[in-house]
């Protein structure tokens, strides 16, 4: 197709976005998390606070504890996104596994991991996703599990496709899986995205590039792991998650 | 080989945390769950409602924000019962809490007009609910607190200038119903917190 299906209101080019990304990255302070004010991701413009966050170091803070989940909160089927419908979904079947730990490497046990994603064609099962790619009647793209005693989680799913979005002209998101993870404390809560190694779209994506530190950005990219691949069945990707933020136990040790 | 290997390490090296990324626009079929805003058992005599609107920097409602709340039980315990996402064992569908254990955890997506409401029980021992904000356009979530009363002994409230303190105070519209709006940016911008 040589024409854009829908004209963009102000038509920022990839080059303009790339230049803005380079500018922010050059002036970055080395933080691990993305700056909430990140102009190349245009939806951030009106949705970030202008006032600095108020620092709080309070051993009595409620946020140093967090919600608990258990056997009633997940079923054994929730971790297999390929078995939620009568038929098999289309696409490349994958196993995604890893460990959830805190910054000291201690496992986060019995906590909820949720993931959601587009199908193999790059389409979400969401009515507002207008990407003209096929929906898959055998794939919803949502799963849950609890971490085990080692902090490990594992999902069976389909490799998601890249998809266009309207941040700028010819904007494409690299293939990614959205993750939501709970720690032992509410302060460790994390919502993030996992990417696939070697994706040619990395350099063009302001969402991934919002993580200005290269080593931190690498944390978001899974590794192909042949030992996780299941013969005649699925390709394996390993992706470990390290939660930031204080917890009540961390605070005691740090004193 | 290298001398540094001889130095004992008393604790594992801190690792680089996994960076945050936006929740995006399409979490709606995944994260919200049946009964997410119903933290209190239906019809509980002490039930309170906390509700309000989420606004952006232009004063427009945010229709695709996701809020989470966390709080102690009325008796002050902070362990939180499991079962927020209780499943029907036959269909596998999430059917809501069992109405007995208090999980302390709420999850609420804003509606098309930016409105949210959570029905819960009064937190024990503290005057606030902890509130976490996710949204498309927000690369890293934001923490705030909805204070149900202006406790003069609360260290955080006391540390804030009067004009900003007000953004954390929920207004009791009528007995048991509290209004707490969240402004992500600009005039009346909500106080957001960073835990250290
Ligand atoms: Fe996405």
Could you describe the 3D structure shown?
The complex is a heterodimer of chains A (255) and B (196). With 255 residues, chain A is of the alpha+beta class. Chain A has a domain at 67-242: Protocatechuate 3,4-Dioxygenase, subunit A, CATH 2.60.130. Chain A is built from 4 helices and 12 strands. In chain A, the strands form 3 sheets. In chain A, strands 2, 5, 10, 11 and 12 form a 5-stranded mixed beta sheet that branches. The longest helix of chain A has 13 residues, at 14-26. Residues 1-7 and 251-255 of chain A have low confidence and may be disordered. Chain B has helices spanning 155-159, 162-165; strands spanning 48-55, 65-70, 105-109, 115-120, 128-135, 142-147, 171-174, 177-179, 182-183, 193-195. In chain B, strand 5 and strand 6 form a beta hairpin. The chains are: A alpha+beta (255), B mainly beta (196). The interface between A and B is large, with 81 and 77 residues. Strand 1 (54-56) of chain A pairs parallel with strand 10 of chain B. Fe (iii) ion binds at residues 173, 176, 178 of chain A.
